[in-house]
Amino acid sequence: MSLFKIGKGRNCLSVLASAALILMLLFSLLMGAGCSQEAVVPEAGGENGEEIGAEGGAGEDEFIILSTTTSTYDSGLLDYLLPVFKEKTGIEVRVVSQGTGQALETGKRGDADVLLVHDRAAELELVEEGFFTDRHDVCYNDFIILGAPEDPANVKEADNAVEVLSRIAENEEIFISRGDDSGTHRRELATWDEAGISERGEWYKSIGQGMADTLRMADELHGYTMSDRGTYLSLKDTLDLEILFEGDPVLFNQYGVMAVSSEKHPHIKYEQAKKFVDFLVSDEGQEMIASFKIGDDPLFFPGKGVE
Amino acid sequence: MSRLLEGIIEAFTLIIQFDPYLWQIIILSLQVSGGAVALSTLTGVPLGAFLGLKPAGRTRFISKVLYTFMGLPPVVAGLVIYLLISRSGPFGVLGLLFSPAAMVIAQFTLATPIIAGLTMVGIRSRGKEVQETARTLGANRLLTAWTVIRESRFAIFGAIVTGFGRVIAEVGAVMIVGGNIEGHTRVMTSAIVLETSKGHFELAIGLGLTLLVISFLINSLLYYLQGGGENSGWK
To answer: What CA–CA distance (Å, rounded) separates A259 from B227?
Structure first.
């Protein structure tokens, strides 16, 4: 028994020791990586802690959370704007991309500092209710109806968006819906209502995913879908879908920015959120939005469009 | 097919060239899951050992609960943690939502039952025997407990590795509580979801391959440990 134990003990010790050694190595590696990674953050603001302090509150962990729609995120607009904002103000913007409905909910709960969304009526209502402040129209584009180039429901010939949906329903062609309470989804549902089509069959697929996922599924299934122009243009190269219908005024798509009310949620970084709002509506911000293009096509138009 | 092939070639290039976006995500994933499993080990192993040494009949109900939580769907864990740490939730003042700490908490919730449950099973299988032997040889309670844990080390290592394998591969919880923020809470699995939807298949494949390699290493370790347990373990 004792002999066995000694032999076992050594074996056990060596296993434990090597395991501990590996773990320690792994952790020091990870910690080292973590440190160097974090060290990158303050560099943009200043060279060391003292300088950052002298800048007046621009701490190294100064960041705001922006809750936004998948369409502004997937299109790449924010990747283009945020580095410039960071350079100007030292504020890091952490982006959570959700559908507009979820983004509004995140803001209402106080889990984000600022929102960039597209459901103007709902936004104005929530500002009225006191959840958000400083709302501004930032940019606009439009929704388009996309489908396979063969266009089996012949929506190209339609005169307006309502007729497009009616033709898809009549022919029972596959239609992919966001189904995630996003701005795009809300607009799509409103258009179905206008067309008077409340019973939608097997051909109507509500998938509960972001714009890019929805476009990809429509592409794979040779179905129709409604998308904001920005996201479609940014993904155009990887899709076979074509724009089959555009230009109806009901397909107009306005984006707005607004800060979460610090009266409802005192922890909100209102000052920094306001800076972000101001940046988007400033001449520089608006010019940047106008110059954001994929190929020759602008994805968003600055300011407030026609209702 | 050509897209898949191109993607794989491009993915290897990204990994070998130490693409900063890719590597930052890999490192964050290891940090989050590693941290969560370290905490789970500290709580799960003592809990499992304690339960394992009790007679099976007396812990029947707790065992059932533990087994249920071993299969807890990550999205459910994510949802519950989200509601708890949201600014409007009971722990909102901590401001943890959309941070790596939130992801560690969620993964801790997933890994702890697995580590505790597997430890319990491992210790129950031969812990009693070891305990009695150690007592007979005159060990005190603490030394007895340590001896039991040491003699069941293969099972415990297996439990830890299984827990890590589970959390490094889950996407539901980290997506909900982390928010998939670039450079801050984006891990391998949530990045794969996003890059696939954006059509950046080469990045998605690169991350997928990395996950597979990590999974292979984990399973090799597990295999080694269990093999070791059979060859030189207590018979």
So the answer is: 58
A132-147 and A63-69: which strand pairing?
Answer: unpaired
Cα three-residue angle B43-B211-B72, rounded to 5 degrees: 40
Burial tier of A281 (Cβ tally within 10 Å: 0-12, 13-18, 19+) = middle
Nearest by CB to residue A267, choosing from B95, B179, B228, is: B95
Q: According to the model, what pLDDT value does residue B38 have?
A: 97
ipTM over 0.85: no
Q: The tokens of A14 are what?
A: 């060596």
User: For strand A224-228 and strand A63-69, is the pairing parallel, antiparallel, or unpaired?
Assistant: unpaired
Nearest-CA distance from A64 to chain B in Å? 11
Q: Give per-residue pLDDT as tens, A232-241.
A: 998 998 899 9
Q: Of A202, A198, A195, A193, nearest to A223 (Cα)?
A: A202
Contact A34 B181 (CB under 8 A): no
**DSSP letter at B89?**
S
Closest residue in B to A31 (Cα–Cα) = B31
Residue numbers of A between 209 and 228 with CB closer than 8 Å to B? 209-210, 212-213, 216
Query: Which DSSP state fits A68?
Result: E
A39 at interface of B, judged by CB pairs closer than 8 A: no
For chain B, list residues whose CB is within 8 angstroms of any CB belonging to chain A. Answer: 24, 27, 30-31, 34, 86-88, 92-93, 95, 97-98, 150, 153, 157, 179-182, 184, 197-199, 228, 232
Q: Is pLDDT of A83 > 90?
A: yes
Indicate which CATH number applies to the domain containing B183: 1.10.3720.10
Q: What are the chain A neighbours of B228 within 8 Å (beta carbons)?
A: 15
Instruction: Report yes or no: A264 at the B interface, CB cutoff 8 Å.
Output: no
Chain A with chain B: Cβ pairs closer than 8 A: 65
- Residue A115, chain B, CB below 8 Å: the answer is no
Q: Could you tell me the domains of chain A?
A: 59-141+255-302 (3.40.190.10), 143-252 (3.40.190.10)
Per-residue burial over A140-162, b if 16 or more Cβ lie within 10 Å, else e, is bbbbbbbbbeebebebeebebbb
Integer Rg of chain A from CA: 25
Say what the pLDDT of residue A224 is.
97
**Inter-chain residue contact B153 with A238, CB threshold 8 Å:** no
| Total of domains in chain B | 1
Q: How far is A18 from A13, CA to CA, in rounded Å?
A: 8
Are the beta carbons of A109 and B87 separated by less than 8 Å? yes
pLDDT in tens, A247-272: 999 999 999 999 999 999 999 999 99
- Which range among A52-56, A256-260, B57-61, B159-163 shows the weakest confidence by mean pLDDT? A52-56
pTM of the model: 0.78
- How many other C-beta atoms are found inside a 10 Å radius of the C-beta of residue A14? 10
Range of the domain at B170: 2-232
